[in-house]
Structures are given as structure tokens and as C-alpha cells.
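Budget justification aside, the reviewers requested a transparent look at the raw inputs and outputs of the sequence design task funded under Objective 1. We therefore reproduce one unedited record. The lines immediately below are the C-alpha cells for a 114-residue chain.
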């Protein structure tokens, strides 16, 4: 593809993720010059679904804008996976670090304790 923009990059990554081609999705993510909240959310969700929680947390920590309300979806995925794996305190620490809490992230945290 001679000309790539944010939409084309995100579409390629989404295609890789929906087909469980995680390595290729990571390569595309690393090649991107610009990323938006959708890009970050896709990759972190990918890692949490594949139980790669350290990679998900590392990627989350490198996000430039954690104040974005879209991060609550990200934290929902991450909190749920951590709680399900018996790492409720890690989920709680992540929740406490979240600058903006809402009903989605709060419910995810409650679900981690159930």
C-alpha cells in the first residue's frame, strides 16, 4: 500500500488480531508513526485475551494519554483478566492509578473481587 494513514494501519492491525496473527499485529504497531486510542486499545485487548498480562501492562504504561475516557475499556479488559487469574491486587493497583474512573472501570474492579 503506497499511502498509509491511521485508518489503514488500524484496519490492518484489527485484521491481524481478529485472525490471531498477534506477532504481525505487533510488528505493524511498532512501525506506526502515529497511534490513537483505538490503536492502543486493540493491542492491549489482544494481549489480555492471550493472557500476556505483562505485555499489556507494559504497553499501558507507555501510553501517552491515560486521561482519555477510552482507557476505561482498556482497564476493564485488564482488570477482568487480572482478577480472573488471582491477581486482584495488581488489578486494584492499576485501577487506583487510573486518573479518571467511571462506571465501566468501577464495575470491572468489582467483578475482579467476585
Amino acid at each position: 500500500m503506497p499511502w498509509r494513514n491511521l485508518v489503514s494501519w488500524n484496519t490492518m492491525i484489527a485484521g491481524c488480531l481478529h485472525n490471531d496473527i498477534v506477532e504481525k499485529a505487533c510488528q505493524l504497531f511498532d512501525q506506526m508513526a502515529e497511534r490513537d486510542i483505538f490503536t492502543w486499545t486493540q493491542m492491549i485487548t489482544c494481549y489480555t485475551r492471550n493472557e500476556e498480562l505483562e505485555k499489556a501492562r507494559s504497553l499501558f504504561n507507555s501510553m501517552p494519554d491515560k486521561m482519555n475516557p477510552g482507557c476505561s475499556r482498556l482497564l476493564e479488559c485488564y482488570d477482568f483478566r487480572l482478577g480472573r487469574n488471582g491477581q486482584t491486587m495488581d488489578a486494584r493497583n492499576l485501577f487506583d492509578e487510573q486518573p479518571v474512573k467511571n462506571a465501566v472501570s468501577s464495575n470491572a474492579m468489582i467483578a475482579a473481587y467476585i
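The CA atoms of residues 67 and 110 lie 21 Å apart. The chain has a mean pLDDT of 80. Computational costs for records of this kind are itemized in the attached budget.
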